[in-house]
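We modelled the chain as a single entity of 420 amino acids. Its sequence is:
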Amino acid sequence: LRSLVGSEMCIRDRYILGVEGDSCSHTCHLAGMNCNPLILTNNTNDIFKELGVNCIADPRPWWAENQPGYVVDPKDPNYNHCLGYVNVPGGVQCGASYSSVRRLCACDDPETGSKVSAFGTGLSSSSVTTTETTIFSHILPSGIYGVMTHFWATAGPLILSQTLIRYYVDDESTASIQFLPPQACGAGFADQHAPWGTKWFGKGAADGAWFNNFRIPFQKSIRITVQHLTGNYGGFYMIVRGMPNLEINIGGVKVPSTARLNLIKFQSTVQPIEWVPIVDIPSGPGLFFMHTLAVKSGNLNFLEGCYHAYSPYNQAFPGTVLSTGTEDYFDSAWYFNAGQFWLPVSGFTHLKTTGGIEWSAYRFHEMDPLPFDNGFKFMWRNGDMVNAAGQKCFVDKVGGSIVGSPTPSDVTSYAWVYTW
């Protein structure tokens, strides 16, 4: 047990005083424990005293999600007050935080947790800021693995289009999964069409309500954070959920419990006929799950680009031709001449034709799985060429004619790939 009043955490029994500005989710995680929303103070500031905090006892009833807490910023009008220990609700939000407050957190030993029940949290009427904040963390009891199964978030108009969600798997230092909710759902350029959805993802309201049900396995712990890229906003809501020992099966392919779901992103300007490396995994086994693509270009001729899969990794060109054009890969034809659609396997989610072209789409590989055992490479092209017989997809660098007049394109790609 520790009792420190400086900038470090203060710990006594199951109660911890976190560092300034931190959430209880992160505070408990750093201590190797899980946040419990139930805090019992008996309407006194005795817990603060036991933690060595010499503060001004403030008897005002609890009123904010970051309480009970100790205010440590001299610029705050409540400086040196212990707040919100009177009439604490039956549960407080583990993911809440405030910049000038050290939260009083209740933390549980992971070994006391269930090895069967679902786990997760809901964050209500909160805020998202430019400071990365831990909304949820969970450390597993020994002898099991975990799978995150659900993500949902909502906020005011377009706020989530600049809100970065990070999943830190097994205490990795850099999150292997980092996404903007609209792009993760295949809706480029923050397209706001709603409602729509598949069993895997969608959008359920005019503002926000982006969700996904991707299976994200972990062996020891998961930590989920939010951060807005440009500003601070209230009215933020979020739900995440998972469960222990859930078998993952994608299209009949059993994913090992020790697998890792990787989000591989590409974002850059590419030249006409340039190859885009959507996935580049030099070795090892895995399964390509799904892909989203958003393109800003001068015209629609980028849609002539073919998709190629290389498995094993060093397979010679053309590898396996997965489509004879971009719209063909997304299960349409003739430059999507039937308009937008949101179907279980694929979707054409955005099109703007004034002032240049904006376009986006998604595709799952559940009905047509793409497993690999010795590396995997997945390539798309910004436009394409035909050979002397008029066939596309079989000209790599020389010996063909460019189809149409593709222009430089700004390309954003998400590819979700299991590896093990």
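As a brief sanity check on the tokenised model: The two ends are 39 Å apart (CA to CA). Helices lie at 24-30, 46-50, 181-184, 326-329.
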